[in-house]
Specification:
Helix content: under 10%
Distance between the termini: 37 Å
Largest sheet: 6 strands, antiparallel
Radius of gyration: 19 Å
Number of strands: 23
């Protein structure tokens, strides 16, 4: 189980297990992790954990939140990351083995990368200069979470219906991915990342990382999770894809 190690001026104060899906950090006593210091906002930040992955979200704090010395609004936490709130530091520790991705894992994890020197698969059309390429693809490492769980709505279709996405542009146009996992990561780490969460009452897309938010049907989504409808067109990091339901 992942944990946070709270310290100040090099002195470890305590360790906190991330044993809840959402844990808040702030000055008020109502927070899961209370830091009683005037530099810390009443509700300063939150850490959301689902499966083996955790995300940090700054809750519009007055003095902001740093991760590894850089300002962060939302950040996918990696082992060893250091969260800074004023003089306090929270080190994220997650002792887990990351799976190795090889050619057999194609169609399990999507990673969007700029054009590189590597050739596209023989079945794909060579991308033109300046385009964004969907490179190698869907991996068993599930990353993501909806920061604000959506209200329950009745199931839109039978449980046998499975969501999928189809790439509409780039070198891998036409390729499909069935969204059978609880969480599927989409995007380019460090530029723009989103996740699609499979819930009993539908599929939801949530922004995770990047200054630009994902676009659905030509409109950028906000910080709330957005439920996807059949044939919605999603755009992330220049790659367009269509969400659809398969019977």
């Amino acid at each position: 189980m992942a944990k946070l190690i709270l310290s100040m001026d090099g002195l470890v104060l305590k360790e906190i297990l991330l044993n809840k899906e959402r844990m808040t950090i702030g000055r008020k006593a109502t927070n899961d992790i209370q830091i009683d210091n005037l530099a810390i906002s009443g509700e300063h930040a939150a850490v959301v954990t689902i499966l083996n992955d955790s995300f940090l979200e700054d809750l519009n704090s007055t003095n902001g939140t740093l991760v590894n010395g850089q300002p962060a609004k939302k950040h996918f936490l990696k082992n060893g990351d250091v969260i800074e709130l004023g003089k306090y530091k929270l080190k994220y520790v997650a002792e887990q083995v990351q799976p190795v991705v090889d050619a057999a894992d194609f169609e399990k994890t999507m990673i969007l990368r700029p054009n590189a020197a590597k050739a596209a698969p023989a079945t794909a059309t060579e991308p033109s200069a300046g385009t964004t390429e969907v490179k190698a693809a869907f991996n068993d490492t599930l990353v993501g979470n909806q920061i604000t769980p959506p209200a329950f709505v009745p199931p839109p279709a039978a449980a046998s219906v499975v969501g999928a996405i189809q790439i509409l542009n780039g070198a891998n146009a036409g390729r499909e991915l069935e969204l059978t996992k609880t969480l599927t990561t989409l995007g380019k780490p460090g530029v723009q990342v989103a996740v699609i969460a499979k819930r009993p009452h539908g599929y939801f897309i949530t922004h995770v990382e990047g200054a630009q938010f994902p676009v659905v049907n030509g409109l950028a989504i906000d910080v709330q999770a957005r439920q996807l409808a059949d044939h919605d067109v999603i755009e992330i990091a220049g790659i367009k894809m269509e969400f659809f339901l398969k019977g």
